[in-house]
Amino acid sequence: MSDEIRTGTMVRDVYSRTEMNVKEPARIFAQVAAAHHPGAAVEESLSITCNGEPLSAVEVDSPHRGRLHSLSSPVGHVVIEYSATLTGLADPIEVDAIDEALYLRPSRYAESDELLATAYAEFSGSKDPAEIFDAVTSWVSSHLSYVPGSSGPSDGAGHTLLHRQGVCRDYAHLTTAFLRALDVPARVVGVYAPGISPMDFHAVCEAFINGEWLIADTSRLGPRQSMVRMVTGRDAADIAFLSTYSGYVELISTKIQATVRGQLPFDDHSTQVRLR
């Protein structure tokens, strides 16, 4: 563990820029801001423009400290730009009484009910949540290949299990589905992730183990200790960085940067880590 993590003085810088052409007036929901980080010092800025002019947005709190920005856009070139510097580590995420029930249920992209037979066949050796967590995360990490472009936006955990390849969201969905099938509450988190390559918005799994939420990145693209929580939910349907309705929007580009000042933490993915 680095001194910055041990003392809680880690400094993380995150940035994203999303450009799109709005062809017909649209309702847009953006989830690009860092979640509320009580216990850490946060300096941030959010700029939303249409054809170079400021476009107003309403910030709405979403579950588990998340923040959604809602806006109505006219036709034009829209740019959403966000940056933040986080000094220190956030307090551990709260455990809500409804979490255990909500995150045991199958969902659109983490169809745990359809993977019950496979889950029991592969991981029937233990009833201890921590042992199940270790077994599932190790299996997913070793049985999938990270292949950009190998999955589509409508593919879920079943598709990933069949094809044994995917990107970060596919790893997170399969890990989450297996854990839920084995009665371990699990959910998907969108994060900024210093050290990953290729740099992008990143998705990981969070599992409820012995009274706390622990993070699993079965793609093992970067260290978990420096990841920054953005949005948390059942699966990709809840954590999409951009959703558009009632119009036509063409996404042009996204640019994401996430760094740690000083040395990037070392992570062999064998220890328990909370997302802070």
From TrEMBL:
Domain spans labelled Transglutaminase-like: 160-220
Pfam families assigned: Transglut_core
Listed SMART domains: TGc (SM00460)
Recorded coiled-coil stretches: none
Classification via InterPro entries: Papain-like_cys_pep_sf, Transglutaminase-like
Protein name as catalogued: Transglutaminase-like protein
Biological classification of the source: Bacteria, Bacillati, Actinomycetota, Actinomycetes, Mycobacteriales
